[in-house]
Amino acid sequence: MLNSFLLLVEAALYFGVMVTLFRFRHRIGLGVFVCALGAMHFLETYLASVFYVALPFGMVSPGSAVLFSGKLVMLLLLYIKEDAATVRQPIYGLLLGNALMIGLVLVLRLHEIAPLPKGKLPDIGFIDQMGWLMVWGTTLLFVDAILIILLYEKLGRYLRKALFFRILISVACVLTFDQAGFFTALHVVTGAPIAVFFGGWFAKMAAALAYSTMLVVYIKWFEARQIPAPRGLSDIFETLTYRERYEALVEHVGRDGLTGLLHRGRFDSDGEAAVGASLRTAKPLSLVIIDVDHFKSINDRFGHAEGDKVLKSVAALLGEIVDPEDQVFRIGGEEFAILCSRSHSVARLLGESIRQAVKTSASTSRFDITVSAGIST
């Protein structure tokens, strides 16, 4: 119980200090955050190789469960709030720095070593072991960083409004992959038992839950500004950032500025494609046209601002009533169109339900709002 509590305290301390440095990055510079992140790497690897505590579900190293998991979450935070061009810098720095350390150790072997008093000699074997584990761990981290960005982006298509689950699933999946990769090297180099793998995995899943919770709280309470635009396309990280922005732009382009529905140009192109697909597959395709009755008189009597509110309210109702696979367009001033894979009778029921929904929603309005519906299959 004490070990579990101490691990939680360590995670909270690590997260608190790191996000404080990150929060003040605009005053003290992002380099302070990055240096602190890199400074923990040796301790993280050292603890992961020799320092373990017993928990009910197995043996756990704070270096792996707390420090490495926290580092991965910090890199994800850096990606979310800055950009991929920034997050690549600590990754490349750690990888190249560890490679340099291995190179220097190889040169150090050539020295004629003078013993210190009491016969103390440097433990080159320990440095070798730590060096190779650090290089392997950083290589895994490089792969982990790419995977977590890919997964975070992919999940954004389905969980864009569920930030906690988007982060939790991304972190948990990548930590599972990393646990398998790092334990393999650890077992070869130090002979770590299989209990280390399972204990470490359970601990990393708990760390994923704890860090994801803290990260979402931090982002929502302390980070309010939008994600900045990408700066270039020189490597895979920046390509990922650019693609996410590009897909968001493509999604925005082609939509009506007032209602947010697909506009007339999309109706022409998507309608032609839908007709072609219907002919090829012999599946039904229905077109439902919705027209707001007496819309001109609403504009004339109450003003264009009220008319815009009517159009937006009708568009919102259409979005709620139709199925997710149906397409809704604004094709004219007060005209809307729905493309749906339904038979004529079902499309008629859809049109009637829209008419009734608009009529009911307008019961509290200053004026009556009704629509007419036409169906073609």
Plain-language structure description:
The structure is a single chain. By secondary structure, the protein is α+β, with helices and mostly antiparallel strands. The chain has two domains: 229 residues, no CATH class; 123 residues, 2-Layer Sandwich (Alpha-Beta Plaits), CATH 3.30.70. It is built from 14 helices and six strands. Helix 5 crosses helix 7 and helix 7 runs parallel beside helix 10. The chain starts with a helix and ends with a strand. About 2% of the residues have low confidence.
**Structural domain count:** 2
- Arithmetic mean of pLDDT: 83
Continuous helix count: 14
Overall spatial form: elongated
Report the biggest beta sheet as strand number plus sense, adding barrel if it closes.
4 strands, antiparallel
Order of helices and strands: HHHHEEHHHHHHHEHHEEHE
Please identify the structural class as seen in this structure: alpha+beta
Q: Biggest sheet, strands in spatial order? A: 4-5-3-6
Q: Distance between termini?
A: 67 Å
Low-confidence stretches: 226-234
Whole-number radius of gyration? Answer: 29 Å
Which strand-content bin applies to the residues?
5-15%
Number of strands: 6
Helix content: 55-70%
